[in-house]
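STRUCTURE:
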C-alpha cells in the first residue's frame, strides 16, 4: 500500500513507523525543513519538506498513486485542505484526517473528502486501524480485536521509571511491553534496557487499565 502522511509531528511519525514496519511504502511530509532534517536517518520512510496544502507538492509526493492519505498536522484547516485535494483532485481511495479542535469535528466528512475523522485523543493503534480500514496492519492491531488492549505510555523527565531497568518495573498482571520507540526507532524491549526520557512504550494487556499501566512508569 502506498501511503502519504502530512505532518511529521509525534503522531505522524509514529504512524509512519508502524505502517512502514508493515511493509507499506510511506512518504512523510512536513512544512518544517528542520523537522525533516532531524528525522533523516532516524526513520525508514521517504521524507519530503514542503506544504502539503500545495497540489504540486502532493503530486510530487505520489498522490496520484496513493492508496491512503493521512493528514495529521496540528492545524484543522490544513488537514481539511489536504483531505479535499487528496480526494477530489487525486482521487485517493481512502483519506483520514486528525481533528485537533473538537468544535471543528462537524466539518470532517465527505464534503471535505474525509473518509475517517480521528479525534486528537484517539490512541495511535486505533487511528491506524481506522485509517487503513484493516485489522491486520501489524500484529498489534489484531490483538486489539482479540480482547487485548494496546496502551501507550511515554517516559517524561518526571517519570519515576527514568534510569530504571525494564525488568525492574512491576507491570500489572497479564501485561507485556511490545516495543520501545527510542530516537524515532522501534527497538526490541530487552529486559536489561535502561529507560530514558523520551522513550515511548507500547504495551499489550488483557486485564490492566490504562491508568494502571501509566502508574507503573509515572
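SEQUENCE:
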Amino acid at each position: 500500500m502506498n501511503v502519504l502522511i502530512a505532518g511529521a509531528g509525534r503522531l505522524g511519525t509514529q504512524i509512519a513507523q508502524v505502517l512502514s514496519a508493515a511493509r507499506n511504502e510511506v512518504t512523510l511530509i512536513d512544512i518544517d525543513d528542520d523537522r525533516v532534517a532531524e528525522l533523516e536517518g532516524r526513520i525508514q520512510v521517504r521524507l519530503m519538506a514542503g506544504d502539503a496544502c500545495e497540489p504540486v507538492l502532493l503530486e510530487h509526493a505520489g498522490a496520484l498513486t496513493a492508496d491512503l492519505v493521512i493528514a495529521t498536522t496540528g492545524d484543522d484547516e490544513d488537514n481539511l485542505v489536504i483531505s479535499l485535494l487528496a480526494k477530489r483532485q487525486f482521487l485517493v481511495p481512502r483519506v483520514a484526517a486528525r481533528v485537533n479542535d473538537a468544535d471543528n469535528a462537524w466539518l470532517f466528512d465527505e464534503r471535505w473528502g474525509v473518509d475517517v475523522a480521528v479525534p486528537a485523543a484517539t490512541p495511535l493503534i486505533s487511528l491506524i486501524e481506522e485509517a487503513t480500514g484493516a485489522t491486520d496492519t501489524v500484529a498489534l492491531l489484531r490483538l486489539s480485536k482479540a480482547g487485548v488492549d494496546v496502551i501507550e505510555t511515554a517516559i517524561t523527565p518526571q517519570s519515576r521509571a527514568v534510569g530504571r531497568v525494564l525488568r525492574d518495573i512491576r507491570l500489572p498482571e497479564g501485561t507485556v511491553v511490545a516495543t520501545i520507540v527510542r530516537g524515532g526507532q522501534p527497538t526490541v524491549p530487552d529486559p536489561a534496557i535502561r529507560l530514558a526520557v523520551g522513550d515511548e512504550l507500547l504495551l499489550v494487556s488483557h486485564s490492566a487499565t490504562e491508568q494502571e499501566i501509566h502508574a507503573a512508569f509515572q
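REMARK: The CA atoms of residues 40 and 206 lie 37 Å apart.
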